[in-house]
Amino acid sequence: MSMQVILAQALLGLNVGVFYAMLSLGLAVIFGLLNIINFAHGAMYMLGAFIALIGYSFLEQWFGINVQIGFWASLIVVPIVVGLLGVLIERFMLKRLYDLDHIYGLLLTFGITLILQGLFANYFNVSGTPYPGQPESLNGVVNLGFMYFPTYRLFAIVFSLVVCFATWWAIEHTKLGSRLRAGVENPDLTQAFGLNVPLMVTLTFAFGAGLAGLAGVLAAPIYSVSPLMGADLIIVVFAVVVIGGMGSIGGAILSGLALGLVEGLTKVIYPPAASTVIFFLMVLVLLFRPAGLFGKEK
Amino acid sequence: MFKYWKQGLAGAVAVASLAMPLTATAELTDGKVKIGVLSDMSGVYKALEGPGAVIAAEMAIEDFGGSVLGKKIEIISADHQNKPDIGASTAREWIDAEEVDMITALDNSSVALSVQGLANDKKTITMNTGAGTTALTEEQCTPYGIHYVYDTHALPVGTATAMVKNGGESWFFITADYAFGHSLRDNTGAVVESLGGEVVGNVNAPLSTNDFSSYLLQAQASGADVIGLANAGQDTVNAIKQANQFQIVQSGQKLAGMLAFITDVHSMGLDISQGLQFTTAFVWNQNDETLAWSERFYERHNAMPTMVHAGVYSAVSNYLAAVKETGTDDSDTVRAKLGEMTLNDMFVKDGKIAPNGSMLHDMYLVEVKKPEESQSEWDLLRVVSKIPADQAYISMADTKCSLVN
């Protein structure tokens, strides 16, 4: 088992890890502030990928709009669209559940997921439609010495890391972020100070959804677009959030990256365990540090 | 006496009908011939069979005249979604409620085995054109199951033999993790080893895998001469495209698409797939007969036919011919007739359906053309050599089918 093989699989693991990180970041933010277990997060990711695909290939065919939303434009347009959808979901559905048990939020978001998946499975095939919009400038390969790595994947890794870091910095080091954190700690007191907590909540959910949508756009050229792409990922993302700590932003990012690496390396050491090693680690964390590695006991 | 004339008449009719033979040879069960096309209409195998198979079957029915023995020929189709339980329940409903007499297509080996077994219990002929596993005519052979176009024994006899003889002695497999993939890998491994080669490793990938990157890197790390792709359809296309992205072929290894179709080559483009060799039963532009039929097919499907599409046309046509000749669609009679016939049409020359259900016919090793060699959008393949039926398919002396040995 040479160094070259280990590095190659580790890089591929990082490739998956940044997606875990982006999705678990959104999930952690939503759980931290809303106390909602957002099972629809995977569906938001899937939605992002599909909106990018439809925006690129189907606007003319379906709606008669002769416009093509290319990849770069999708990076901005799609998260906004998915975010708006998030606003709708939060305002009209989730708002009613805040005083109830967690389980209702989970059931509602799970239901939303099934509806969205079924909707798209009706129009697109389940095994994946390739996304044809990968930009020319990102075609080609980079020679890293130990392997050839597609340029686009490298771009996806770097871009995702920048987004994750920017989000973390915004929450931890800006005024807006501090207000958000205050709202999480004590919503009533924060509202008493004059901050519009319900608005913050809605915007936070929209932001989380938008982040998931962005991840979907980035994933489309690599993984193809399928109605089930979110379902495949969301279970692992939940495990990542649990390991990182449900309310911790930095924890979610670090855990996502680390667990992607772990999965990649397991593929070298003992491939059959690759898909389950994360859950094994999750069980260990729950047994010994239930609040997660970076989380705080609530 | 004539007070009870109605009852008397009824009684006379009843007696007369009893006196008629129960297996009336000049009659069709349910008064019609109904053919079912059960395929993957929306998933990984959609392009190689799917809606095109329905078109091919419709063409066969139309060319036959639309009716047989004075009764209209009907067709029904459905999507099995690559799920054996959906395939089986659809087949059961077709046979029980829809009066289907023959089921064809049946891509996806797990669905195929499931439906063939069920159809056998209900004495219904299945003419499988889409699936690959040799189990259909070997361990799980049935009296009513026919395997028409290709199988996982014929494919490596063509492709693996050629590649091993060209220096590809060590093989690493990326296998679709279900009946077909395992069957293809086992058969290919056997051919490789019989020629003095070696199987150095294997990794299983779930059906409909989108990201082969880590499997391909494992294959690259093994240092094998050849990476054998024991999968098909969109899986093969994804694997080859990604192998290109990671420069695997450029780094010195060869890819063997153990089951590939012209639709895959068209999807990938000649830049990526040139030089790929695989085994097939039909090339649309290999002669005037195939060309004429394929152009008619193209007009209705907007894509050239795969060997499976051509196979559906041939299977349905020959089934209808057997029904016409025997005067019935009773499964035992028709199956016996199909076994006696020598099949000759645009798809097959001197084909015979063996007692284990295998349709013995010649296969062809083809190579994907270079971009500069191709003269039209679908002119993608060059025939390299012919593999005679007796080499391609398992002989009756060697078959593990319990009906024969």
Folded structure, characterized:
By secondary structure, chain A is mainly alpha-helical. Chain A has one domain: Orthogonal Bundle (ABC transporter involved in vitamin B12 uptake, BtuC). In chain A, α1 packs antiparallel against α9, α4 packs across α9 and α10 packs parallel to α12. The model of chain A has no long low-confidence stretch (mean pLDDT 88). Chain B is of the alpha/beta class. Chain B has 2 domains: 199 residues, Rossmann fold; 153 residues, Response regulator (Rossmann fold). In chain B, strands 2-3-1-4-5-6 form a 6-stranded mixed sheet, sandwiched between helices. A 4-stranded parallel sheet of chain B has the order 8-7-9-10, with helices on both faces. A 3-stranded antiparallel sheet of chain B has the order 11-14-15. At the A-B interface, α1, β2 and α11 of A face α7 and α8 of B.
Number of domains of chain B: 2
Q: What's the architecture of the largest domain in chain B in CATH terms?
A: 3-Layer(aba) Sandwich
Number of helices of chain B: 14
Q: Under CATH, the topology of the largest domain in chain B is which?
A: Rossmann fold
| Rg of chain A computed from alpha carbons, rounded to a whole number of angstroms | 19 Å
| CATH topology call of chain A | ABC transporter involved in vitamin B12 uptake, BtuC
- Number of helical runs of chain A? 12
Residue windows where pLDDT falls under 50 for at least 5 positions of chain A = none
CATH 2nd-level architecture of chain A: Orthogonal Bundle
| Helical content band of chain B | 40-55%
Strand content of chain B: 15-25%
Q: Which two chains touch over the largest interface?
A: A-B, 26 and 21 residues
- Rg measurement of chain B, Å: 23 Å
* Strand coverage percent of chain A: under 5%
Number of domains of chain A: 1
Sheet bearing the most strands of chain B, described? Answer: 6 strands, mixed
